[in-house]
Amino acid sequence: MSSIHIDGLSVAHGESMLVDCSFEIGRSLALVGESGSGKSLILKALLGLCDTALDVRLQKRSPFEWNRGKSVALVPQNPFTALSPLTRIKDQMFLTNERSEELFSLLGLNISLLERYPNELSGGQLQRVVVAMALGSNPKLLLLDEPTTALDGDSRMVMIEQLLSLQEILGFSLLFVTHDMGVAAALCEDICVLQKGKIIESGNLKKVLENPKMPYTCQLIEADFKNREYRK
């Protein structure tokens, strides 16, 4: 699996620089930082979805033609806002019935759910539906915007296991945006720690977690550990 190099990504608003970073996406990269660090802004910049008032500059080297919605796809944080509540799931897939059923099967979803409306599915089922939608075009790069945040512990683990399985089968790279170090460690090989729009630490995820160099990284790890203890 060839690496994708983001050699320079900057987002500015007037004189204020909001994001200024470079990174490499191999098999799987977690982009970790607290709220407001610039994680979601980076995703929007990669997808060309930033507000026109922002000055976005992006240089990338990729083994494939960068094409939003085809070679690059997004799984949003909140599936409830990504789906129309008035339309059956099958009519929102924009895929052939055979392809929809194939993806549902890979994600452990009963194909009968295609006939239902979003409000008839659980949060975990809906999140897997939007993953199926994103994978419909066989993307080379899958962007994940904290898709496990609203899930309970069991649903979160199911989602992680299925994403890892799908990656083995379909061969896509992952860029996972999150503030949850535990989920990042379960899903990704590498990490970039983002603070105020800049990457302050990066490398193999397990090595960074075992031996963080920056105080900010230590704070994120400690905060995540306390949150997991609280969730127990």
Description:
There is one protein chain. With 232 residues, the chain is an alpha/beta fold. It has one domain (27-37, 65-231): P-loop containing nucleotide triphosphate hydrolases (Rossmann fold, 3-Layer(aba) Sandwich). The protein contains nine helices and nine strands. A six-stranded mixed β-sheet has the order 5-6-7-3-8-9, with helices on both faces. A hairpin with a 2-residue loop joins strand 1 and strand 2.
Number of helices: 9
Q: Give the rounded overall mean pLDDT.
A: 92
CATH topology: Rossmann fold
Structural class by SSE content: alpha/beta
What is the assigned CATH homologous superfamily? P-loop containing nucleotide triphosphate hydrolases
Unreliable spans: none
By CATH, the architecture is named: 3-Layer(aba) Sandwich
Secondary-structure element string: EEEHEEHHHHEHEHEEHH
User: What is the β-strand count?
Assistant: 9
Keyword list:
232 residues; alpha/beta; Rossmann fold; 6-stranded mixed sheet; 3-stranded antiparallel sheet; 9 helices; 9 strands; globular
